[in-house]
Each structure stands twice: as C-alpha cells, then as structure tokens.
Specification:
Layout lengths: L1 E5 L9 H9 L14 H14 L4 H8 L8 H11 L1 E9 H10 L5 E8 L5 E5 L5 H11 L3 E6 L5 H6 L2 E5 L3 H6 L5 E2 L2 H12 L1
C-alpha cells in the first residue's frame, strides 16, 4: 500500500513567511526552511522579530487570507488524491494552515500548533514531534505503507530520503547541488508522472 507525503509551503502554496515579510515590510522574515536547516532556531528568531515589532497572529492571518494555492496546485492534488492516498506533512501551524486547506479542498494535513496569548501575541509553538516529517513517514511505514515523498526544503530531506521514492520540487539550487541524486522537478505534471511511476 502506498501513501504520498507532500510538503505544503513552496510545493502547494507560497511561503507564508515570505508573504508576511512583504506585507509587514520586514525583510528579515523572508528567511525560511529553504535557507535555515535548524527549524527551532528559525522559529525562535521569527518570534523575536514579531515581538520586537508588536505583531501577532491576527496580522499574520490577515496576510494568509490573501494567499492562494500556486497555479495548478489544487488540480495536481485532486488528480493525485484520485489515484492514491495523500497526506500533507508540514512544519506550519494549524492557525496558518486551515484557510489554505479550504482552498485546496480539505486534504489531510499533519502540522504543529502556535501558542497564542489572549491579545494575539504568539508566545511560542508546540511541535507535533521532533523531526516530525521523518517520524511520521517512519510511523506510516511501520503500519504497512510504502511512502513516496516530495518537498522543497532542508526540513523535507529526511522524509524524502527515508521513502521508497522521494523527489525535490521547486527546490533551491543549493539543495539540488548538495543532493544531486534526488530527482528534482519544477512542474506539477512532471512530479505527478514521477509519483505515479513510483506507485507501480
């Protein structure tokens, strides 16, 4: 039995923090998991910037409301879900992901949770598990699934390499250079064809 595990940001929807960086005029917030391999370091740095600028969940959610899936993403996902089971594995947060899941037709997503004060200040975050993408793939494998994974960032590499088949999608040139043995695609049709071939 196969199950496909997809990253969310950079694969199906634009990067939320990059969009918020533009909306808030804070260029430092453009840094993502495509740039920083250490997720905890990245998130603590982001929370410090939010606190410094007195920005909270409400402001971020206003930006998220303006974000649409990447062109062709929903069609790709619908086509893939008609063929096999799909789970989105993301290091984003439920408070960010829910409106985006609606726009994608409510696929299953496993992600994390923000800790938010009554005034909307983001005070912390709770990870579902350490190395959550890898742990989830391993758990799925332990109950009889063969996993096929695709993502674009450093935090996707473990699940990609642990899977029966794994692909980079619209990744950075640095990651593609560092992992030349991973097939890399730029278009949904290419990724769909590679996933379908791996299903057989």
């Amino acid at each position: 039995m196969n199950i496909v595990c997809l990253d969310l940001e950079g694969v199906l929807v634009p990067e939320i923090w990059i969009a918020f960086s533009k909306a808030s005029g804070i260029p430092e917030l453009k840094r993502t998991t495509r740039d920083e391999p250490d997720y905890n370091k990245l998130m603590n740095w982001r929370l410090g910037i939010l606190h410094q600028h007195h920005l909270g969940l409400n402001e971020i959610q206003q930006t998220i409301a303006t974000i649409d899936p990447m062109p062709g993403a929903k069609e790709f996902l619908d086509k893939l879900r008609a063929r096999t089971q799909v789970i989105i594995l993301s290091d984003t947060f439920t408070q960010f992901a829910t409106p985006l899941m609606e726009k994608l037709g409510w696929p299953t997503i496993f992600c994390n949770t923000l800790q938010v004060a009554a005034d909307g200040e983001v005070t912390g975050y709770k990870m579902r598990a350490e190395k959550s993408k890898l742990v989830t793939v391993q758990a799925l494998q332990s109950i009889g699934f063969d996993t096929i994974a695709a993502g674009d960032s450093y935090n996707d590499l473990a699940m990609i390499q642990a899977s029966k088949a794994g692909f980079l999608f619209r990744s950075t040139e640095q990651i593609k250079r560092d992992y030349p043995f991973l097939p890399a695609f730029e278009e949904y049709d290419e990724l769909y064809s590679a996933i379908v071939a791996a299903l057989d």
